[in-house]
Amino acid sequence: MPTFSASDGTRLAYHVSGDGPPLICLPGGPMQDSVYLGDLGGLTAHRTLIRLDLRGTGRSARPADPASYRCDRLVDDVEALREELGLDRVDLLGHSAGANLAVLHTARHPDRVARLALITPSVHAVGVEITAEDRLSTARLRRDEPWFTPAHEALEAITAGRAAPDDWQAVAPFWFARWDEEARAVREAEERQRNDEAAAVYAAEGAFDPAATRAALAGLAAPVFVLAGEVDVAAPPRAVAEYAGLFPNAEVVVQSGAAHFPWLDDAGRFVTAFLERVSQGAGPKVSPQVSSPGTPATDSAPATAPT
User: Fold this and answer.
1) Separation of alpha carbons 4 and 54, rounded Å
2) Partner of 256 for a Cys bridge, out of 116, 164, 277, 303, CB 3.0 to 4.6 A?
3) How many helices (H) and strands (E) does the chain have?
4) Nearest to residue 225, comparing CAs of 106, 71, 137, 83?
């Protein structure tokens, strides 16, 4: 397992797997061990995945200054990894909360990013509003699930600002297309993999300046691929489409039947969508489903109700 030194001396770890052009992968959580990304549904057959363990998570050391867990300060760690790898420009993928870090790095170092992939992204860094109805209407697509009623009641409490501690566990099925044994194991592992101290600092006051970030991204030349899950209550498709519209050269795709972990929900569909829209060559690949920025396309298979 390779390590490198951040600018403040913290030793950071990263994991390399697969074959093909390198793709730096930033995990969500926030501040969760990158192990949960796995091989991103088999993407390692086409790309060399470089999973960064953010400071204080996974195999990376805890910093001397806990304030350095703040998202905007983590940008320097991503840049230090790029330098460690000897890459002039990188393809960068951010999942969930990791998308906040990915876009902050891109806004600060636009000349260092060749391509950007944002998977079921958190939108805090750019200030896109996700309304209660965005989440609840997306949740209602799952109304035929046996667990729906208690999970929906818990989601209503959360979106109304009156959540009880048990409500957060009750909504867990919404994060997956299938609430099966694999999904339960992933959910249980999250508790062990996340650094709660770091997560509490990640979005602290000063971490995000949405207006400045939007202005920087508006001039980005790099192609951007944004993927939403059709039934993802964490990053509902309407909000993700608005997010994609902030970039001049973006395509947003809604993966049918997918929730917050699309490579777990349908690995083949996820990998195909990625490869069709994120070029492995010198420039962006033209897809027959390219839409104007902010206008979602569905993936090639028809939408189906998740089971």
Assistant:
1) 12
2) 303
3) 11, 9
4) 106
Other beta carbons within 10 angstroms of residue 126's beta carbon come to: 23
Which residues share a beta bridge with 93? Answer: 25, 117
Q: What is the total residue count of the chain?
A: 307
Task: Determine the 3-state secondary structure of 225 from DSSP.
Answer: strand
Q: What is the mean pLDDT of the chain?
A: 91
Report whether 229 contacts 270 (CB < 8 A): no
Bridge-partner residues for 229, per DSSP?
Answer: 255
Q: Which pLDDT value is given to residue 191?
A: 87
> Cβ neighbours of residue 166 under 8 Å, at least 6 residues apart?
154
The helix (H) or strand (E) run that includes residue 249 is none
> How far is 88 from 216, CA to CA, in rounded Å?
20
How far is the first Cα of the chain from the last one, in angstroms, to the nearest whole number?
A: 38
- The partner residues of 117 in beta bridges, in order of sequence, read 93, 225
pLDDT in tens, 71-109: 999 999 999 999 999 999 999 999 999 999 999 999 999
Average pLDDT for 105-114: 98
- What's the token pair of residue 97? 């909360």
Distances (CA, A) of 30 to 27, 89, 175, 254: 8, 25, 15, 23
Cβ-contact 78, 101 below 8 angstroms:
yes
Residue 127 has pLDDT above 90, yes or no: yes
Half-sphere exposure of 7 (CA within 13 A, CB side): 11
d(CA 246, CA 293): 8
- The helix (H) or strand (E) run that includes residue 114 is strand 113-119
Cα angle, residue 183 at apex, residues 178 and 189 outer, rounded to 5°: 165
pLDDT digits (tens, 9 = 90+) for 149-180: 999 999 999 999 999 989 999 999 999 999 99
**d(C-alpha 226, C-alpha 244), whole Å:** 6
